[in-house]
């Protein structure tokens, strides 16, 4: 049995968020903290579903998110990590502080994948490269092409995960 829907979708507002809605959501989260997203629309009066509230906070409003252009170093890191990890955007985002997995995924799909495809087709004009297997076609020369610098060093190990024990431990 799956999870019930986040809302009944009746009377739910869709489309772009207004600055007023952003202020309401940020104020609520500053007071109550992020979490229990199902209660946010009811407690704030926002006519948005809980998933929309959660994604708005996570991808746009959360403090510390870096927005805007990616640096050449970030581009190189994304290319390198995508070659190693494939399309595991959350894992890739763990190596790029302040960038969201959604932002990285969108940047890959709208910019970097096309740059790599163009670069590879220039190297091998008679070879049609299937970019659905992106991670297998990336080379270190791609890094230099995209950033005009040497490739970035290997990524650091992923940040440690914290786990909490919920069972009755032994003493």
How would you portray this structure in words?
This protein is mostly helical and 171 residues long. 47% of the residues lie in helices and 0% in strands. Among the domains are: 19-61, Orthogonal Bundle (Arc Repressor Mutant, subunit A); 72-121, Arc Repressor Mutant, subunit A (Orthogonal Bundle), CATH 1.10.10. Helix 4 packs antiparallel against helix 7. The longest helix is centred in the middle third of the chain and has 23 residues, at 101-123.
What is the CATH H-level superfamily of the domain at 72-121?
Homeodomain-like
| Average residue-wise pLDDT | 80
**Main pleated sheet:** none
Give me the oligomer status.
single chain
How many helices in DSSP terms?
Answer: 7
- Uncertain regions: pLDDT < 50 for 5+ in a row? 134-150
Within the CATH hierarchy, at the fold level, what is the topology of the domain at 72-121?
Arc Repressor Mutant, subunit A
Q: What is the SS-derived class?
A: mainly alpha
Radius of gyration: 21 Å
Tell me which CATH architecture of the domain at 72-121 applies here: Orthogonal Bundle
Shape by Cα distribution = elongated
CATH class wording of the domain at 72-121: Mainly Alpha
Q: What is the tally of beta strands? A: 0
User: What distance lies between the first and last C-alpha atoms, to the nearest angstrom?
Assistant: 37 Å
Relative helix content = 40-55%
Domain HTH myb-type: 9-65, 66-116
Main location: nucleus
Region (Disordered): 125-171
Biased composition (Pro residues): 150-161
């Amino acid at each position: 049995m799956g999870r019930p829907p986040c809302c009944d979708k009746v009377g739910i507002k869709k489309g772009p968020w207004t600055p007023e809605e952003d202020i309401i959501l940020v104020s609520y989260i500053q007071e109550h903290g992020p979490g229990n997203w199902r209660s946010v629309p009811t407690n704030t009066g926002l006519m948005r579903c809980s998933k929309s509230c959660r994604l708005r906070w996570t991808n746009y409003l959360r403090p510390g998110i870096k927005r805007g252009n990616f640096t050449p170093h970030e581009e190189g890191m994304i290319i390198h990590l995508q070659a190693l990890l494939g399309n595991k955007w959350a894992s890739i985002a763990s190596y790029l502080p302040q960038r969201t997995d959604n932002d990285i995924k969108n940047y890959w799909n709208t910019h970097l994948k096309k740059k790599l495809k163009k670069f590879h087709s220039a190297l091998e004009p008679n070879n049609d490269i299937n970019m659905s297997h992106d991670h297998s076609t990336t080379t270190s020369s791609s890094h230099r092409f995209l950033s005009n610098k040497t490739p970035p060093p290997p990524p650091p190990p992923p940040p440690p995960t914290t786990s909490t024990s919920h069972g009755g431990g032994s003493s």
